[in-house]
TrEMBL record:
UniProt xrefs under InterPro entries: Snake_toxin-like_sf
Name the record gives this protein: AMHR2 protein
Transmembrane intervals: none
Cross-referenced SUPFAM superfamilies: Snake toxin-like
Biological processes annotated in GO: cell differentiation
Amino acid sequence: AQKPPPGACVSPAGPHNLTCVSYKHPSVRGALGDAGAAAAGAVRCPPGQCCVGIWNRSHALVQGCWGGRGDACPSATCAPSPAGHPGSSVLLCLCHGHLCNGNATGTATAVGLGGPRQGPG
């Protein structure tokens, strides 16, 4: 398992001023969280919130801040799991690392992400 770089991990007890990738696919209707327009960007979340990412099998649907309790986001990285019924094509992750919802790790297939990719260098 890959360890996050120093400073990238925030205590699950309460992330403060966490920055998350912000994106909303044009097919998504209505207001979901703090996700903005179709252009991917970054959003600074209110204290206590963490990052959320929702994908289907081919692209990002929504990325932004999650207003749930801090203990709902124990991981510093985004490891998507199926949302809804078993076999669902929708994947969801909650995480508390800087821009962690821009990368989906641990998926069997490559997941297209709306936000900027993080990488070495």
